[in-house]
Amino acid sequence: MANSQPKMSTIHIDPVNAVPSFPKLTILGFQHVLAFYAGAVVVPLVIATGLGLDSATTVHLINADLFTCGIASIIQSAGLGPKIGVRLPLLQGVTFTAVSPLIAVGLAAGGGTQGLATMYGSIIVAGIATFLAAPFFAKLLRFFPPVVTGTLLTVMGTTLLSVAANDIVAWGSAAAKAGADPIPGTLRGLAYALGTLAVIVIIQRIFSGFMATIAVLLGLVGGTLVAWLLGDANFSAVGEAAPVGVTTPFFFGIPKFSVAAIISMLIVMAITAVETTGDVFATGEVVGKRITPAHIANALRADGLSTALGGVLNSFPYTCFAQNVGLVRLTRVKSRWVVTAAGVIMIILGVLPKAGAVVASIPKPVIGGASLAMFAAVAAVGIQTLSTVDMRDNRNSVIVSTSIGLGLLVTLKPDLAGYVPSWAQILFGSGVTIGSICAIILNIIFFHIGRKPAPAVSMLDGRPLDLDAVNSLGEEKFVRVFEPMFSGVTWPLERAWARAPFASVSELRYAFQDAVAQASPEEQESLIAGYTDIVDLLLSDEADEQALVDTGSTLLGDLDPVKQEELRVLGKAYRERFNRPMIVCVSRIDSAEQLLADGWRRVESSDLREMRVTLNEVIEIADNRFEAMVADANPIHSAWMRSFDQLD
Questions:
Q1: According to the model, what pLDDT value does residue 304 have?
Q2: What angle do CA 525, 529, 531 make, to 5 degrees?
């Protein structure tokens, strides 16, 4: 008789909502705090140095920052109400983007503690504006393409290096002001900074995973320990600090509001909103959750609320910390409650002034060395973002060069702010502010106002063709213009033409790629058959003229007689295996050794995989030929870009 009792269903718990045991929750939460800690405390330290704040005020800023970071992280991970907080394992921290503008705001308002009221007024307004604008931010993303965000990150990282440099030479500068010889202090500070930087680099070279994540923290600890052993670190302030203390709202006075300062902070929050959006999508990918516009809006509301709270509690603007997104990927612990636990730990640290006093006692050159690594890493991310931007489009080049130029101008000549009206001093007092405003405005002017000039794409009868002209070509002329892209056949061009008009050069490029990828196997084989075998291309004169142009002479110097013979054997083996020419896009090959190694791996591939590899090589060759056409149509700009390439 069959068992009639119903089966118990297994209850599936989303890993994001799972609650680990208390010991595990505590350990994993502390791990998040360690990964985050260096970035969190460096910001108030750098701002305090820039504004010339005393030790007691610096300790208060550090504790206020940690306390508010904890609250912000709880809001983001645990959520507050139905629409505030993304409820993912995202930890909140002070954004580096705000450092330079905040220093400029504080100095323009008088410096020292006098400037803090204006600084906090702008933070509160920017936080409220972010909270209210959160549902509409998706519509504003088009004003922050990679050319803008990449430029902003590059400007931010490079201009902040001057702040790190000031910390490194702080001892020498102090000696000079006192009328003493600045050289010994400067050299001693440089030694500590370089030593701290060396520790960070060595840890990142030797270790991976969590140890690499906390490299900056270990660098700070190592540099401070050496300074203490040599008598250059004084921790007397730790004994003087109160055992417990809570930051109170508006500790430095009632906030003051400046239009220029508010605009500066609004730009900062717009940049951090882009950063938060990327972090939310990255975290969603890690934890396996599909991210919707509602998630982004909830995350940005938490950013805005936390930032406004930061202005009230004497702290700074907040955003998601990318380091902790990497830690979630590393540990594979997806529970958002781990980040909530980290928030609780930070709140506890934020009410312990002695902990803040320890941080405030770190020698400035050590902070400078760690800041150098962190700020340069920000610039590197900006450069990486700009690498995805089409710099053949002169509009993008103008945006990048002008914005970076202005950002560095006011950074290298900070006294310029003293020559402009008071309302413009914040603008000219921060490279990040003026660079950001310039990039945003130029992007709107070039890409969002009026008729957009179409970029030149190719040549026809000696005349450059822009995208509008290409869109108006008949099929016959279209094929004639782009015929050099493919060897022996024209059907990819005919099918690409059928997709006109093209909204961008990238869309035109995609049409060629899709035509090859979506063709029938018979058509793909006929296309491949029209190309020259890599052996003939490098070792004989049988290649067609365009193929010889593709090849140039890059590899010929590496092909000694032994390698030439191995290449012939490889070509014969490939022919016997697949009965087609072996096609290689040589622009991606660095040496004869790489060519031979890749070739033998391809011989061992399955038929289907090798067909895909070969088609990818065909598409890569077509892309290179297309790039050459665009370069020929823009000779001045291309020559300018090549001149920079030759400097590398």
A1: 94
A2: 130
> What is the mean pLDDT of the segment spanning 142-146?
79
H/E element, 637: helix 635-645
pLDDT number for residue 337: 93
In this model, does residue 1 exceed pLDDT 50? no
> Which residues touch 616 (CB under 8 Å, ≥6 apart)?
none
Handedness of CA 211, 213, 214, 216 (dihedral sign): positive
Mean pLDDT of 32-59: 85
Distances (CA, A) of 303 to 73, 307, 340, 567, 578: 10, 6, 15, 59, 57
Q: Distance between terminal CA atoms of the chain?
A: 81
What token pair was written down for 622? Answer: 């077509």
**Token match 């945003």: residue?**
440
Count CB-CB contacts under 10 A for residue 380.
13
Centre a 10 Å sphere on the Cβ of residue 479 and count the other Cβ atoms it contains. Answer: 17
The whole-chain average pLDDT of the chain stands at 83
The number of CA neighbours under 13 Å toward the Cβ of 618 is 29
CB 567 within 8 A of CB 535: yes
Element (H, E) at 407: helix 394-412
Residue with tokens 């529970």: 335
Write out the two tokens for 178: 């006192």
Distance separating alpha carbons of residues 309 and 316, to the nearest angstrom: 9
Question: What does the pLDDT read at residue 644?
Answer: 38
Closest CA to 272 of 384, 126, 404: 126
What's the pLDDT band for 636 if we cut at 50, 70, 90? very low
> In whole angstroms, what is the distance from residue 14 CA to residue 520 CA?
43
536 half-sphere exposure, CB direction, 13 A CA radius: 15
Alpha carbon distances (Å) from 2 to 5, 6, 8, 10, 245: 9, 11, 16, 21, 68
pLDDT tens digits, 164-214: 888 888 888 877 777 788 888 889 999 999 999 999 899 988 987 778 778
Asked if residue 354 has pLDDT above 50, the reply is: yes
DSSP character at residue 585? -
pLDDT digits (tens, 9 = 90+) for 92-112: 988 877 888 898 889 888 888
**3-state DSSP percent of the chain in helix, strand and coil, to 5:** 70, 0, 25
Decide: residue 416, CB within 10 A, 0-12 exposed, 13-18 middle, 19+ buried: middle
pTM over 0.70: no
Half-sphere exposure of 231 (CA within 13 A, CB side): 0
Task: DSSP letter for 459, please.
Answer: E
Amino acid occupying residue 74: I
Q: How far is CA 582 from CA 42, 180, 538, 577, 596, in A?
A: 55, 72, 12, 11, 12
Please, what's the b/e burial string for 306-339 (b: 16 or more CB within 10 A of its CB; e: otherwise)?
Answer: bbbbbbbbbbbbbbbbbbbbbbbebbebbbbbbb
